[in-house]
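Onboarding guide, step 5: your first structure request.
Type a short instruction followed by the sequence, for example:

Predict the 3D structure of this protein.
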Amino acid sequence: MKCYYCNKEAIEEAYGKAYCEEHFIKYFLGKVRSVIDKFNIRGKIAVALSGGKDSSACFHALNKFKFDLLPFHINLGIKYYSNKCQVEAEKLCNLLGYDLEVIYLEEYGIDLEKYEKPCSICGTAKRYLMNKFAYENNCKYVATGHNLSDVVTFAMNNVITGNILNFRGNKPFLEENLEYKLVAKVKPIYYLKDKECMLYAMINELPYAEEECPHAENAPTLRLKRWLHEMETEMPGMLLNMARSFWRIEEKIREEVNLNKCIKCGYASYGKICKFCKLRKKC
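The system replies with structure tokens like these:
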């Protein structure tokens, strides 16, 4: 199969077009650029590096556009896995000429290993600490490596489990609300899928941890994501159409939800005390 734009051998196909290595990189960066331009992203960005392929690809792409970047990593304290992720994030920063800021979850008195089902605890902690880090370092945005596959899987899982109150964060961009200490959130690789992020990382020889989180093994969301990818193969464009539908649902839900300031830490909360402070109290 030949590249749609030249006669070189294609390495990937997306939305009916085949791409050689050179034109795939242009395609990838073009998708990132579309988010940057649509939401007029300008200013200092805190980039959350998990150590995985997606955040590595996201950081590398943002660096290509010469943004003022502040990379950071949250060490979750998961045996073997967390240290491996931190090492890969450090390698990436060294490669691109940055210092990596590291946040240790254990310093907040939270040990994920104590929980039988730590995934929801992990999600709450990461969301809180990412925003806190960006806010306290005077960043205009916090950027994460969530891609289209992740966003649709997360939203579908909430629909399946009836967890509608957590039905948020489906859009590529969420505006700041500094009254509640909320910085703007952006997903630069939003319009790209898992396979495309992996390919971009491999082409550019980016370091990343290949291991999956041990707590995510056999998670229903992994099976759900595989099924969604199978459906996307049969119906190209399905994931993006689903994502846009979820945006509309989220907009309706947000109209009915009121924000408060946590009486403990002063950050945004849907109740008197935010989930993170409640979590710390239990530890």
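Each response can be followed by summary notes, for example: The longest strand covers residues 69-75.
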